Amino acid sequence: MCFGAENRVAGGVEHVASVIEARPGMPLQMCTKSDAYADEDSAKVTRSVLEILSKRGVKNVHLCSRGGNLAIRDVDIFAINDTWWFGQSMSHCWTCNDFNMWEPHSPPPSCRRRALREAKAKGVNTFLVVAPVLDVGQSLELIQFVGPYCDEIIVGAAEPCGRYADEIKKRNAEIDWQEFSKACKEKAVKAGAKLHVSVYGTLIKVAGGGNAQIAEDVQAPHDGVQRCTRNG
Question: Are 131 and 155 in contact (CB under 8 A)?
Answer without folding.
Answer: yes
